[in-house]
Structure formats: structure tokens, C-alpha cells
Amino acid sequence: MYIEQIGRDKVRRFESEQYWAKPVPSWGDPNARLLIVGLAPAAHGGNRTGRMFTGDSSGDWLIKAMHETGFATLPTSRSIDDGLLLNDAYITAVVRCAPPGNKPLASELQNCSRYLVSELQLLVNVRVVLALGKIAFDACACALGTKGLVFGHGASYSINGKKLLASYHPSRQNTNTGRLTWPMWLEIFKAAQMMTKITR
Q: Each residue of 57-82: pLDDT tens digit?
């Protein structure tokens, strides 16, 4: 299994660490009004630390923006025991295991889809669903009971009493190329913050 292989064949910078190397659980405030949906745990981020968006560059961007807008108690996400708590926010992903090349197969997306549906049912206070990237956006739309919506950074849709908000994923592929800039990213969280209050 890929996640176990990554846990054995570690990159040099993490060679002394014990990898989680299992499906990575969601986490956050169970009373959250904001649900953030990523693609999958990173091979040397969540798959290593055991917590989504923890210990990698995407997590750095996510938690810093969440901290600046009041959704996180700390500006960094380094390890599962770093004391970070989320305020009014919950983090999940479309796929729970790190996929090879960060590209999940259709079968993986289908196998994990029921978890997102269940979370949307269990997190009864969620008013805003922030989808990071097109794959997450399409999965969220489907979990909310609709299809055919057009993905675009900053696009938002009202679906069954919830707002679906789209953003580029804070991957290095997007942040290093300037496709996603820090001001663009922070605006998404300011919009999410406003939407949670409006739809309360």
C-alpha cells in the first residue's frame, strides 16, 4: 500500500520520524459553521503527522490564513500535539489516504465519498463548505446533492441552505507559480468568515 511504503521509504529530512501511514482522520470544532475540504493528506504532511494539513507547505498557508481570520488558535500546524485548536471550523478531505502523485483514482474518490456525505450530516451547524481545488469542489457539490456547477476561484453557490465556496488549493504548484497569491487566499477566508455570520 502506497501510504505504508512512504512510511518506510522516508525522505531524508524526515528519516528519523515515525510516520502515521494510515488513513488520516478529519479534525476540528464539532460545532463548526465552516467546513474546509481538501483533496487528500500529503505524503510527507498528513500521512507523516497523522493530522490533515499539518507539517507541509499547504498546511502552512491554510493555518496562517485561518489564524488571521480567527478560525485557528495558532498560526502554524506542525504536529498533532502542537496545541493547535480550530475555532468554528472543521477540516476534512475528499480522500483519506495520500495518493501517488497526489492524484487519487476514481475508485478512491468513490470509496471515500460516503465519509464526506456523513460528515455533512453529522456537522449540523455547517453553513459554509470551502472546497480547495476542482476535485474537492466537484465532490462537495455531489455530496450536497447537485452537479454541473462551474469551478472558479472565489465562486460561491447556495445549495440546500449552505454556501459552497470554491478556491484554488494552496499547493506549491499554485502558490509558487503565482496562480494563488496570499491576498487572493486571505480574501477567501474573509469571505468565508462573512458567510458564516450572514447564514447563521
A: 999 999 999 999 999 999 999 999 99
- CATH code for the domain in which residue 159 is found: 3.40.470.10
**pLDDT, tens only, 150-181:** 999 999 999 989 999 999 999 999 999 999 99
List % helix, strand, coil for the chain (3-state, nearest 5). 40, 15, 45
Domain limits for position 74 = 2-198
What pLDDT, on a 0 to 100 scale, did the predictor assign at position 179?
97
Integer Cα distance of 66 and 58 in angstroms? 12
Give the number of domains in the chain: 1
Which residues fall within 8 angstroms of residue 164, CB to CB, at 6 or more apart? 129, 131, 137, 140, 141, 144, 149, 156, 157, 158
Torsion 42-121-67-157 (CA) sign: positive
The overall longest dimension of the chain from CA atoms, in Å, is: 48
